[in-house]
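Subject: two folds for Thursday's group meeting

Dear M.,

Sorry for the delay on this. The cluster queue was jammed most of the week, so I only got both jobs back this morning. I'm pasting them in the order they finished. Each block is the input sequence followed by the predicted structure tokens. Could you check whether the formatting survives your parser before we put anything on slides? The first protein is the one we discussed after the seminar.
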Amino acid sequence: MRRHVFERLLRDVQHVNPYFRQKWDRAGRPGLSPHQKVTIALRMMAYGSPVDSIDETYDMSKSTCLDTLEQFCDTIVQVYKNEYLREPNQKDLNQLLRKAEDRRFLGMIRSLDCMHWDRKNCPTRW
């Protein structure tokens, strides 16, 4: 992830959710930094890192790892849902088609449209 993208994400998350602000314990020691919390959440999502490896690497308890991931996901939806987590409009589709044509990836939108088909014979469980 590029640095400016990470910094924007960090700033937006800190602004909306106090969970991602630096806190101090009763002994006056700093808790986990906002950078650590966001990095841990991103690492867990991007690499599918198990909580055990995060616990050992960043010295963060399993419950705190899971809380951080949940807080991060909820905050991301809250902050970016209107801008990024919406159905594309015609302007967005035209921009995607132009990019796809430039990269010789024709038929991109049609292949994505098939993702929402209901399949009547798909198994739902074993």
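Second protein, same layout:
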Amino acid sequence: MIPGAHMHQDSSKPFKDPHAYRRLIGRLIYLTNTRPYITFSVNQLAQFMAFPTNLHYTAAMKVLRCFKGSPALGLFFPTNSIVQLKAYSDNNWASCPDTRRSVSGYCIYLEDSLITWKSKKQRIVSRSSCEAEYRALALTTCEIT
């Protein structure tokens, strides 16, 4: 997907086979286990499984095309890594155009190996970017604990 693009429910033509769209998104969700770089895009597309449009299906096909250009990309877990935990968190304040809620995300590494990650829309609307950052850090801290 285009960086900075956010999907939303619009008035474009509904996709003719919603069941096929749901199957495709389900398979993409499974692929996020070893290819975390598609997690945000798949998360955006999964929000419209009830009423997908042609625009959503086109975006899902673009995600599939990225696999064709990068078949060797994925997670690698070496056996000789040192036990050191590193965590990164970030958020995108009021990024959802429909609800104005922030999207928080984190990734946690055990040395150089990614062991967990998450991107999730916050439950409430944050009043400031500072409040949204605090919520993202709290979410990351809970996961580490």
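Two things I noticed about the second structure. The two ends are 33 Å apart (CA to CA). Strands lie at 85-92, 103-110, 113-121.

Cheers,
T.
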